[in-house]
Design a protein that fits this description.
Shape: rod-shaped
Radius of gyration: 56 Å
Helix content: over 70%
Strand content: 5-15%
Strand order of the largest sheet: 1-3-2
Structural class: mainly alpha
Number of domains: 3
Amino acid sequence: MPLEMLTYAELGERLKISPEAARALVKRHRLPRSRSNDGKTLVQVDLTEINHSPVARSPQIPAAQQAVTTLKQKIETLQTELIEMEATARGHRADFERECERTNKLLAELLKSSVETLAARERLALVEGKLSILTQPWRRRLVDAFTLCLPQAATTVRERRLGRKAA
């Protein structure tokens, strides 16, 4: 049974495992080790005594790669949520614009109604004024018409009339 002096890398190649797995195997079997002149560790091993068959394992994903995939999935979900929110915002914007147009139309109608109401009140005041003149006796109407035409003469007439009543 030939003994061979192999490095961890060489032992790993022969057994078709990684150098780290070869190092763990040497520790487990407590095989003798020594240092070579170039600083590498040499293992004294009889390959016929080692019954090692590599176990096929699924490749281990490093933690960083798992974090990256997790973040990519999170980004995709956030992007889909963003698209949904933008669609909702467009709907709300359309509702807002429609309501603004409706408000502007209602405001224009309100202003138009206000102007018409003021004009109607002015006409009503004019008609009430004419009606009040017609309900007065003819002498009073004559004095009021005279007052409107000649305001200075009307004051003297009033003063005379008041003077007669006071005397």
